[in-house]
Write a structure and sequence with these properties.
The chain is of the alpha+beta class. Helices cover about 60% and strands about 10% of the residues. Strands 4-3-2-1-8 form a 5-stranded antiparallel β-sheet, with helices on one face. It has a 3-stranded antiparallel β-sheet with strand order 5-7-6. The protein is elongated, with a radius of gyration of 25 Å.
């Protein structure tokens, strides 16, 4: 340990200054509890026995096991940890405790709230993880739309596998582009350490990528085919969905919830955003595919099977509303989930 102390998650622990800070703001902590936290953080991943706590924290003062239990319980509450699904302090029954979160040392004094946070490495890590999460959402959505499209009667020489692969790669490409804009927008806003900016960051990233992709897509259709399919997914959709993803990430960061619950909240907010897009007349992937199929009469692309499952003839308004909500929920949960795993080192845990 250096004089700069330790950093983990949103916290900075400086044993020399007897100070714990979260996002640059001091956190009140009992002196013995601070010693117990310092003992665990100083040896991350290593089992700290009950005897060591008694010797090095209470320094031989006779106390019951309940005192140590209450100490760990208070530390978990302060850190926003969950004993059933720990991110910071893991219980080793009948033996002691282990600090399991990634710890950095020698990273300098805590930065004030609103200053640049963890730098470009964190920006690239979180933004890249969110983009990968969007790609996973694209794979799932592409398989669904691909299977629906492949189940329709096809023109001679066109195999179901070809249709599946085309729709799969098209959906993945769209998800990766949108995910990159939203994820790096959120990651860039998070550098400010004020989590309210992640909503604006996600919305702005989605707006820029959505508008650019729509402009490029419509120009490509006009150049190659002489006409465009109309109002495909663009800036408005990117703005709303990106803002919904940012809002989901913001909600998750404000509460002491488990990772699963945070992902679920992000998915719910994403579903609301996807449904709102459809109600406002916008389109997501399903709606854009339907526009392509109706704008080009010779196309054999149809999503009627999805409409049939929802009691509609063809891919109607109910189908667009339902698929829009599901797309939004899937996209948001995958993006936020991937960013959470990257930020909290969950990739290294079972």
């Amino acid at each position: 340990m250096t004089s700069d102390g330790y950093r983990f998650d949103r916290f900075h622990l400086d044993p020399a200054d007897r100070r714990l800070a979260r996002d640059g703001e001091s956190v009140e902590l009992n002196a013995r509890y601070l010693d117990a936290l310092t003992l665990m953080v100083g040896e991350p991943g290593k089992l700290i026995s009950k005897d060591r706590f008694l010797d090095e924290v209470w320094r031989g003062i006779p106390v019951t096991d309940e005192a140590l239990t209450q100490c760990i319980k208070s530390l978990r509450k302060l850190l926003g940890d969950d004993a059933a699904r720990p991110r910071f302090i893991e219980t080793v029954p009948k033996h002691g405790y282990r600090f399991i979160a990634p710890v950095e040392t020698g990273t300098g004094a805590p930065r004030p709230k609103g200053a640049i946070g963890d730098g470009w490495q964190r920006f690239l890590l979180v933004g890249g993880a969110g983009t990968i999460g969007a790609g996973i959402a694209g794979i799932i959505g592409g398989l669904i739309y691909g299977l629906a499209g492949a189940s329709q009667p096809l023109q001679p020489g066109m195999g179901a596998v070809s249709v599946l692969l085309v729709l799969l790669w098209l959906t993945i490409a769209a998800a990766l582009m949108g995910g990159a804009g939203v994820s790096f927008g959120i990651a860039g806003a998070a550098l400010l350490r004020d989590r309210r900016w992640v909503i604006a960051g996600g919305a702005l990233g989605g707006l820029i990528v959505g508008a650019f992709a729509k402009l490029l897509g419509l120009d490509a259709f006009n150049l190659l085919l002489g006409r465009s399919p109309g109002d495909i997914t663009g800036g408005l959709e990117g703005l709303i969905l990106g803002g919904a993803v940012g809002l989901g990430a913001w909600f998750g960061a404000r509460a002491n919830w488990s990772v699963r619950r945070r992902i679920a909240i992000a998915g719910l907010v994403g579903m609301i955003g996807g449904a709102l897009i459809t109600l406002l007349g916008g389109t997501l992937m399903g709606g854009s595919l339907e526009l392509l199929s109706t704008s080009f009469p010779d196309s054999r692309l149809r999503l009627d099977q999805i409409g049939a499952l929802l009691g509609e003839h063809g891919f109607g308004p109910i189908s667009q509303l339902v698929t829009g909500a599901l797309e939004g929920g899937l996209f948001a949960s995958c993006v936020v989930g991937a960013m959470l795993f990257a930020r909290r080192g969950q990739f290294r845990r079972p």
